[in-house]
Amino acid sequence: MSETATEREVMEYEVIIVGAGPAGLACAIRLKQLKPDLMVAVIEKSAEVGAHILSGAVIEPGPLDELLPGWKDNPPPVCIPVEDDEIVFLTAESRRKLPTPPQQKNHGNYIVSLGALCAWLAPQAENLGVDIFPGYAAAGIHYLPDGTVGGVIIGDMGVDRDGNPKDTYMQGIEIHAPLTVLAEGCRGHLSKELIRRFKLDADSDPQAYGIGIKELWQVAPGKCKPGLVNHSIGWPLDTKTYGGSFIYHMDKDRVAVGFVCALDYSDPEFSPFEAFQQFKHHPSIKPLFEGGEILSGGARTIIEGGAQSLPKLEMPGAVLIGDAAGLLNLPKIKGTHQALRSGMLAASHIAEKGNGEGFDSALRASPIMKELHKVRNIRPGFNKGLWRGLITAAIETVTAGKLPRTLRNHADYSSLTRLKDMKPVERHWVTRDLAPRDRLASVYFAATDHDENQVVHLQILEPDVCITRCGEEYGHPCTLFCPANVYEMVEDTESTAGKRLQINAANCVHCKTCDIKDPYQIINWVTPEGGSGPNYQNL
Fold first, then answer.
1. Contact 501, 469 (CB under 8 A)
2. Fewer CB under 10 Å: which end of the chain, C or N?
3. Are residues 92 and 68 in contact, defined by beta-carbon separation less than 8 angstroms?
4. Going by C-beta distance under 8 Å and a sequence separation of 6 or more, which residues neighbour residue 227?
5. Confidence at residue 5, expressed as pLDDT on a 0 to 100 scale
6. Do 394 and 351 belong to one domain?
7. Cis peptide upstream of residue 236 (ω within 30 degrees of 0)
């Protein structure tokens, strides 16, 4: 690339926001509401705003009411008032209804498609004068000579797998600004780099994550109950693994179904994707989907660490907001309201101060942090198993987080048990007949699109470890924890090991599970060419 590289074109803004999710768009909108003349740009790696967005999603409307009063007069295209809540405990054959925890009572909330919500928010921002650039991936940070963040570098386009320019080559530009707002979502490529560079997590626990897999179904007429919110715990997870399911009944005979599994699970042979498909075949669940049709599907990681895993949220020239900061309230199973609030708070802070200095203190003194503090012990309480976790959750709820002790989080990648130490696991999986038949089929429903002849965005830092040590110790868990069949061990007669790791990067749905769960931390997810990736519809 050095032979063709030239000095990059530069664009100048006063604030750059990386990521057109709810946090980034809320920040942009509020900035322009407060300072109409401020030059604000939003950079988004997906081809269209909302195409990479996936979430439950049941939202609390309060932050939207504040940001856009009267939004209910022109609501987003998917917006169904919640009519009823239920939570159930599943065994392999049975279903038992449980009392709904206070955090999960959804009266007054709405079932939405978060992708559609963001696509709806984008024009609101543009009407105020925000420049939004979808299809442009912020691939690097522009640093000033003193190390301050001075903007972002847009990734080059039209580069082949070997790093050579194709006929379509277009050099990425630099976008400079005194302040960069990182709103990339969970495990963002640039956020990860900046947290490491500025040691923003030095005083916090390791971050905790889960993987969420979701599908949108068209069910047979009469089966959908619009406004019903159902959650489950228990089967198909064992009592040592944290997670559960959701089924949200929408309009037009559409049902959103999803499964969330904490990434600190210990079984190297466990597959979150297969567990999700098994859940759909539970005797009490399967009838809902029989005779129906899957419309779309995808996966993403969920940030679960809460208050004790919150990094410092400011650094010279930049701030973190939304899931990039780690603000999701896991016991509520909600993060959108926190994302919107943090975006608005950042905007108010920037408008008043002119920079990001003091934003960390401002957020920690805000209702955003107060909400996280009240539930800080619920997620780590499940580290000792389901029953201990439920007891801890009850105590934390009753005391409103006032207990003096704060339970600790641990790094997810460190939790796998080596094969030699594993006891046989009886899964009691059934033969499946509901779509999708396998992970490759699920990739089809994510409408994932990558040019196969582009630089592979999944960097394996020590390939030999994958072939030898990882196989011996863990049995190549990447081939199981990835929900999109990106990683395959294939025969290779030219290799001394007789096999090699094949990376099917075109399948990637950008969930970043591999970056988090790999036990050796040698998989580095970086952003692919702008516009690549999934194209989620109403997820």
1. no
2. N
3. no
4. 80, 81, 82, 83, 84, 111, 249
5. 60
6. no
7. yes
Q: How far is CA 370 from CA 261, 290, 306, 327, 335, in A?
A: 26, 43, 11, 11, 14
The pair of three-digit structure tokens given for residue 362, joined into one six-digit string: 């401002």
Selecting among 46, 301, 309, 336, the annotated active-site residue is 336
Domain around 493: 435-525
Counting every residue written for the chain, the total comes to: 539
Considering 113, 186, 514, 532, which one is annotated as catalytic?
A: 514
Structure confidence at residue 3 (pLDDT):
46
CATH number at residue 164: 3.50.50.60
Terminal Cα distance for the chain, rounded: 38
For tokens 């007054």, what's the residue?
108
- Based on the residue annotation, tell me whether 511 is a catalytic residue of this protein: yes
Residues 353 and 468 placed together within one structural domain of the fold: no
Q: Are 450 and 533 in contact (CB under 8 A)?
A: yes
Domain check: are 451 and 514 in the same one? Answer: yes
Regions of the chain with pLDDT less than 70: 1-5
508 is catalytic: yes
How many angstroms from the chain centroid is the CA of residue 240? 23
Active-site residue, from 439, 442, 511, 532? 511
Q: Identify whether 27 is a catalytic site residue.
A: no
Say if CB 512 and CB 187 are below 8 A apart: yes
Return the closest-CA partner of residue 20 out of 12, 32, 11, 29. 29
The active-site residue out of 186, 508, 513, 527 is 508
Cβ neighbours for 162, distance < 8 A, ≥ 6 positions apart: none
CA within 13 Å, CB half, 493: 0
Pairing of strands 318-320, 314-315: antiparallel
Residue 56 has, within 13 A of its CA and on its CB side, a CA count of 28
- Amino acid at the residue 485: N
Q: Which of 30, 46, 55, 527 is catalytic?
A: 55
The alpha carbon of 264 is separated from its chain's Cα centroid by a whole number of angstroms, namely: 16
Selected catalytic residue, list 301, 439, 482, 527:
482
**pTM of the predicted structure, to 2 decimals:** 0.97
**What CATH number is given to the structural domain containing 470?**
3.30.70.20
Residue 317 in any domain: the answer is yes
Tens digit of pLDDT for each residue in 38-54? Answer: 999 999 999 999 999 99
**pLDDT, tens digit, 9 for 90 and up, residues 161-170:** 999 999 999 9
Which residue out of 30, 187, 254, 300 is catalytically annotated?
A: 300
Smallest CA-to-CA distance from 501 within 469, 526, 531, 527 is with 469
261 is catalytic: no
User: 390 CB contacts (<8 Å, ≥6 apart)?
Assistant: none
Strand partners, 314: 319
- What pLDDT shows up at residue 494? 85
Within 8 A by CB and 6+ apart from 23, the residues are 183, 321, 322, 323, 324, 339, 340, 342, 343
Both 370 and 384 in one domain: the answer is no
Rounded alpha-carbon distances, angstroms, from residue 502 to 280, 441, 478: 30, 18, 11
